[in-house]
Amino acid sequence: MNRLPPVLASLRLIVVVVAGVLLGLVSAWWAIGNLRFESARGIGQWSMVDDRSKGNPYEAARAARRGGGGLGPSEGIELVTEVDAGNRPLRADCAYTIAGPMPQGVLWTLTVSDRDGRLPVNPAGRFGFTSLDAMTFGPAREVRISLGRDVRPGDFVATTGLASLRLTLRLYSPTVATRAPGREQLPSVTPLGCEEEAG
Amino acid sequence: MMIDTGLRWFVAVLFIAGLTHIATVLLVPGHSRDQAFTGIDLAEAATRLVRVDGRNTVADLDPAFLNAVCRFDGDTGPMRLSGAMPATYWSIAALSEDGRILSTLSREDLRGTDIDLLVGRTAALDAARQSAGIGDIETMALPVDSGFLLVRLFAGDLDDRGRAEESFEGLDCRPASDD
């Protein structure tokens, strides 16, 4: 039996404890922050946020991390996405277009932020669009909003200063809170290109 | 022998990681308690509406709205929110200390734009109505003693923001016992 010297044995114990704690913290941070583990109802690429669902500890942790302030049943619903239509994670160095229909007769707001809710910093002070200021096209009044670091024609949100990307679509109507829109009533997010591809 | 020792330490790492993971997930909500509006002056919010945005709250609020909170707690009794709301969309939400929604009221729930709302526990609401002699008033009964009343006024463009700010200036949120 060749035993380790006490110093090395203690060192190994410290390494094991530190590695275990770090692994636990990182896995918890990843699981709480990852929308893919959201048990909330998904509508296409959008996930419905419900801060009231406290049964699942991960949901409770996510709600707490968001800091609260979500919408109640008589206010409307909140949908978020961190992936594009191809289920690839949204990247702050890529440009995207959000195109398609929006629920009719409902006040909606679309907000561009990072995953921690920080808003983009741009000279126009533009962090999204609403049903009252977005351009609409065709009889279905479809929206076409692009976002990215380089200015594009039409409705555009500059994502300058963001390290990650999250889109939040809030629909203000008690009706949509009881009967959520289908995926065919919501826009989809498609990539237009990324900085390294363009460069 | 070497493999057995390595496997044992690997299992130990996974065991500690599992415990840390579970403890972290369970502790996050408790640790976040009272964090929703830590950046505001609570004493000021107990007597009037205070505007909140990314600078003084971590709550995930819609930046297309003018958001403001006032605080209620069991010591001061029910809060009374009164004034004129804008013609654009608005809503009021009662939140727990950690920012969880308890009850909401929106434009669709109210006739007209004038609001007179009493917020608190059911028993305290009845007592406040009797002592202040208030008959015709909207009430929001809550299951908690303390929390925040969040007022959201739509401010999507400059015109809407102007209307929202005008309404905000005219809104009064104070303990009902002050009447």
Protein architecture, described:
The complex is a heterodimer of chains A (199) and B (179). Chain A is an alpha+beta fold and 199 residues long. Chain A has helices at residues 6-33, 57-66, 174-178, 195-198, and strands at residues 42-43, 46-49, 77-81, 94-100, 107-113, 128-130, 136-137, 142-148, 155-158, 166-172, 188-194. Chain A folds into 2 domains: 1-33; 41-198, Domain of unknown function DUF1214, C-terminal domain (Jelly Rolls), CATH 2.60.120. In chain A, the strands form 2 sheets. In chain A, strands 1-2-3-10-5-6 form a 6-stranded antiparallel beta sheet. In chain A, strands 4, 7, 8, 9 and 11 form a 5-stranded mixed beta sheet that branches. In chain A, a hairpin with a 4-residue loop joins strand 7 and strand 8 (142-148). The longest helix of chain A is centred in the N-terminal third of the chain and has 28 residues, at 6-33. Chain B is of the alpha+beta class. Chain B has a single domain, classed as Immunoglobulin-like (Sandwich), CATH 2.60.40. Chain B is built from 4 helices and 9 strands, in the order ααββββββαββαβ. In chain B, the strands form 2 sheets. Chain B has a 5-stranded antiparallel beta sheet with strand order 1-2-8-4-5. A 4-stranded mixed beta sheet of chain B has the order 7-6-3-9. Chain B is elongated and about 80 Å long. The chains are: A alpha+beta (199), B alpha+beta (179). Chains A and B meet through helix 1, helix 2, strand 5 and strand 10 of A and helix 1, strand 4, strand 5 and strand 8 of B.
